[in-house]
Amino acid sequence: MKFTWNIISGLLICLLPVFTSGQNMGDDLRIWGNFQMDAQYYQPDSLIGAPEVPEKIRMNGFANLNLSYKNVTVGLRYESYQNPLLGFDSRYKGSGVPYRFATYKEENLEVTVGNFYEQYGNGLILRSYVEPNLGIDNSLDGIRLLYRPHTGITIRTLIGEQRLFFEKGPGIVRGADAELNFNEVFARFEDSPNRWSIGVSGISKYQRDQDPLFVLPENVAAFSGRINFSGKALAFNAEYAWKVNDPSAENNLIYRPGQALIVSGSYSFSGFGLLLSAKRIDNMGFRSDRNATGNDLNINYLPAMTRQHTYALTAMYPYATQPNGELGFMAETNFKIPAKSLLGGPYGTNVTINFSWANAIDKNPVNDTINVQQAGTKGYNSPFFSAGNQKYFQDMNVEISRRFSRKLKTTLIYMNQFYNQNIIEGYTTRENIKAHILAADIQYRLRARRSLRGEIQHLSTQQENGNWAMALLEYNIAPHWFFALSDQYNYGNPEKDKQQHYFSVSAGYTQKGNRFSLSYGKQRQGIICVGGVCRVVPASSGLSLSVTSTF
Amino acid sequence: MRHYFYIFIQGMIKFVLFFNIFRMTYKRQAGLLLLIIFLSLLNMQFVSAQSGKKIPPHILATLDGENISSSAFENDGKPYILSFWATWCNPCMKELSALDEIYEEFKDQGFKVIAVSTDDARTHANVLPLVNGRGWEFEFYRDDNGDFRRAMGVNMVPHTFVINGNGEIVYQHTAFYDGMEWEMLEKLEEIAAEN
Description:
The structure holds 2 protein chains of 2 kinds.
Chain A: H1 2-20, E1 29-42, E2 57-69, E3 72-81, E4 94-105, E5 109-116, E6 118-119, E7 127-128, E8 130-131, E9 136-137, E10 140-150, E11 153-164, E12 167-168, E13 172-181, H2 182-185, E14 195-206, E15 219-230, E16 234-243, E17 258-269, E18 272-282, E19 325-337, E20 349-361, E21 387-403, E22 408-419, H3 421-425, E23 433-447, E24 450-461, E25 468-477, E26 481-489, E27 501-511, E28 514-523, E29 526-530, E30 533-537, E31 540-550
Antiparallel strand pairs in A: 1-2, 1-31, 2-3, 3-4, 4-5, 5-10, 6-7, 8-9, 10-11, 11-12, 11-13, 13-14, 14-15, 15-16, 16-17, 17-18, 18-19, 19-20, 20-21, 21-22, 22-23, 23-24, 24-25, 25-26, 26-27, 27-28, 28-31, 29-30
Chain B: H1 2-19, H2 26-46, E1 59-62, E2 67-69, E3 80-85, H3 90-101, H4 103-108, E4 112-117, H5 127-134, E5 139-142, H6 147-151, E6 159-163, E7 169-174, H7 180-194
Parallel strand pairs in B: 3-4, 4-5
Antiparallel strand pairs in B: 1-2, 1-5, 3-6, 6-7
């Protein structure tokens, strides 16, 4: 480890002065990277549940530094958590270089040694990726190959161990994927408007069995097949994955194979789009350590099939995929009411209507003496097409956005939500949350580059913390400055002393690829999610600084 | 002035490299790296490191599923915008809507927008119907697992690059505020005039 780090940093440092000395190596040499730092000064606030932080200040930061010369790219990422911000796993504590790689790339060949990210198909059996805002990085450390033996055929293989904070997980991940793009392989279909491609992949993981009680499979394989079609207005994508039985902490050590199916189809033309998608997931958690939980050491990615909301109150109760079993369905249509028509207004109006639903799969006991999901058994039987009797999540929302004049533009959202807190957040006695949410976003241009933006939001529910109201006012000077004031008020909380205001004031400056922002105020406890993977953010109060830069 | 600055960095780094690096403790090495980053940031004051460089070659998929290399991006010798976005990112949607509203002016001058969606498997099926539903006419690509985004050093979306007629990166910007679409148009006009 230390040796490779020495070599790579040595290489980088050798080449850096060459670059900075000017253009004599011409277009072939490129250096780039980015930097991000988030620091917060914490103040305890018992009213909102913000804890006393002994260090007072905590910081997460990282920098990527990459360099490419002709066909070779080398790069590394330095990360530092001193100590990790509240809400991030405390095992991140410390600093180091958990990511470094070298890649050789030709038109039809790519070889990577070191850390890499990879995704096969939709990620149902393999997705390694990085999402610093969630504290997720399951990069593989090993070797990755990509080869295109013929136009339209791509073969990829990999072997590696997964990153776990500043260490590695105990398992080894091996895999291969082949993809065939018909229109590129067969020249006579090249210009056809109907495009087809298929792909197959396989992943296997190895982890020693040291369980005193059970004989656990040390090698676990998973396979998947996928098909993509795209025509003039129709598009279709389906993937099915199957996994050998893999008793784990997540599925309570049951010997049942896993499977997942996702299907989506869309029909669209200029001014109209419709998307329908469905999925079924059954015992499909797949990690390189069978004892891992939370967001640790996931090999695969099971996307949530719900809309990802961005306004604060619409995102208050977000859904997270249930790998042990779920049925899901989503429909979304969006269309544009043309400008100057009866309803369209002078600039046209955009409408999005979305419905999503997630439910338990039907789990029946294997026989009379075994409970569903009982450790050391086959777990349960589950008819493929039948739904269980527990609803996990439902969201129905309508969004309308319209420009009224050169100066005024608005967006309105209404959302009706059902949220099974016990299942999604892992409680046992909480009530299901039913909420209505309204949000309005109003943008008003004062002068060419000065604008005001306001948000008003309201969430009403009888459960959990009751009603919330929120207001935000933002003043922007494009392209550099923003200033914002906001308040979230939990006025409907059934407990009087929890009816708190969460004020916050912030400002930011953007210059080219660099952004600095500073904010002071209170942050409610909440869940932030990217791509259906979520992290709990505890309540906090204080001053925070974020710097991000691409160079 | 800049020349001397570079010479100074070179001298310092060479000194550190030849006399110290392999004898250093981890802490020192980390410190050195931070120093390099700091210098790179300083460097940016003058010119972004990617400035004047071509886009790295990378295979991307069109929304129809066709594979195209980013090295084939071009606009007949005219500058264009390369924008990273996602369907779940509010400022990104605002940016593309704003660009769409003035796209006639772009087209009149021969400019165009290439928009790379960083949506992952959760939302990527939604990109095509959304783009069509909004009636956007930009050139769209998909970057499912963020490989191209990483290859361009993009940290968060929206992140916008301006590429000149020779395919070189000449400007970049992160975040979007109302009115920035005009800024982009002006930048393109400025660059087109230089060529």
